[in-house]
Fold these 2 entries.
Entry 1:
Amino acid sequence: MRLPLLCIGWTVCLLANPASAADRAVSVTIYNDDLALIQDQRDIELKGGRQRIEFEDVSAQIRPETVSLAASDISIVEQNFDFDLLTPAKLMEKAVGQVITIVRVNPATGAETREQAQVLATNGGVVLKIGQRIEVLRDDGLPVRVIFDKVPDNLRARPTLSVTVNGARSGTRRATLSYLTPGLGWKADYVALYNESDSKIDVQGWVTLTNSSGVSYDNAQTLLVAGSPSQVEGGNGQQIYRPQPRRATLQQAGTESGSRERLGDYYLYPLAERTTIANLQTKQVSFLDVHGVPAEHGYEFHNYWLGTADKPVSVKSVYSFSTSAHAGLGDQLPAGILRFYMRDKRGDPQFIGESRIDHTPMGSTLSLATGDAFDVKVQAVVDKRTRLSPFDWQTDMRYELTNALPRAVAVKLLQDGLWGDSSIKTESQKSTRRSAETAEWTVSVPANGKTTVTASFDTKY
């Protein structure tokens, strides 16, 4: 709702026993899946007995059911989270049925006139009762302001958590407020520069940290957790959509251990120094910088079923490298996006594609597709399909691979969809089985030439 006002006065109401922000220490643990653990240490003043303590500057998206307050000699009676924030629109909504003061200024003379008005409604506009007349407060550019006697008790200038406690004795306590909140997240972003002359890559890894939780965390000790702790989904009975898996980038899982700190089955990436995570801010911190890692550039084509393609299809341009401590990146890689660059003839780095990786152990082999190759194509053709029995078919496939590059290339040709008792009866060159359902050929295609691969499949449906 758009309200026509534009200057508002009110009497400020002080918080009851606010928790002091002085000597405040904040620790933030951020997970990959839009989740963070906040541990907020503050000094609180206890009077002894039952009292309410209010914590300002907590996350506007706090999960109240996860709140815990730890301090000596206190017990928690009740806690409330006031997330209705103070705005002109909210002030007017809360004033429905109450009397406010309308101040109008004569543009010609500057003279002010004041009238008492009862707020009748704020549905799409403000409807007032002034004396015996009904008036709509218009946004017509004339100088008008509204004066409220007070701020409603349940409106806060900032997100506020109030906790009612019983204290055994009076005095100052150091208290730790802990809670989970969405709105804070991080991801890894990687930049890889591929050197075609010596088949090596330089890789930089960046932590990209975002905060949309509604509050800033000043001078926070920040710890990033690479992993996905389980969270309950769909508690209201709705079905959770899960996308289909994308092309696998992890070709071989690593078995190497490193020195990085673990938390259970997750890896920890602490920021070296305390930092301020401002609301609505994106922050980047470097965590990986490796040069001269051996890499291999190749091509790959998946035929997902035994059918004929209408036209030749581009193969994928693929880059493979290791995360091993020996001749590799030498680290565990948090999930993120890796962007590839290559220098042109002028020596300028140019973007050639990107690929997403999952959490990757050290010692793994990664194979990342950066896009479709312009000059290398494959057309899969069914030469003949024969029914051998009611549930047994023979399919004769032909794969035409063409290469318009001035150099020979090797293409990994993969035929998927070999379910159940499917088998290869004949083939023009020997294949290997990548999995029970996928056959793989490594096909050499000459410069400015083509190669044909044929295979006959026995499939049962």
Entry 2:
Amino acid sequence: MAQKKKKPQSAGSDRQAKIQAAASSGAGSGANKIVIAAVAAVVAIVAVVGFVVIKQVQSDNAVKGDGQAVPAGATMGGAYPAYQDVTAKAGAPTVEAFEDFQCPGCQQFERAIGSTLVDLAKSGDIKLQYHMLNFLDQRLGNTSSLQASNGAYCAADAGPGKFEEYHTIVYANAPEQEGTGWTAAQLKDYAQQAGLTGDALKTWESCTELGKYTNYNKAVDANAFGKEGIKGTPTFKINGTIIDNKTFATPDQVKAAVAAATK
């Protein structure tokens, strides 16, 4: 049987065949491998960065407690109980202080009777509670009340008595001009003056930078002007009853009021 003769290839088709042969034999595979390796490296970097970001978010949320963090011994929007390591005496009255760190009147009362309240609380003669407000931030156009309050509660995380120490130091460094407030560096310095160092100071910095107690602070402020029925600061209550500041302005007056309320 006769067979068909193969047609001679043209020069163009021969060149195309060589190109296809070179491609199939792996020519250029080195460049492809480099591209693939580069893509793989980018993917790996993105994965690592994504993991780090996720872990950081998880860490931040752990500090903030998903926005529901409250200082030890307190409830959302409720008072902060001072000197929780002290056992109050039987019949000791509860004294509540409603304050704003930027309030000039609060600063005056702190200088006049602050140490008296501290001494009575340390001796167990009263159960001292603080409601730290921040309504003056809006009036003064800053966030110093909120930041100072956060700093005080973050200091409390370091151990017993640290809230109270920080509280005293902030008032002792009240700015001369209302509305000046405090810088972040100043508030950190107050934490150091309160004895926070090393890991405790780092934890305090993280706590304040993330605003761990921001929602708690805002809830305290809202409750004070809501169900607590206060009209301004400073305001004091003994066993739930608002007392006239004029009768609670000196150490002797404070001691007399406490004695009258002791059961």
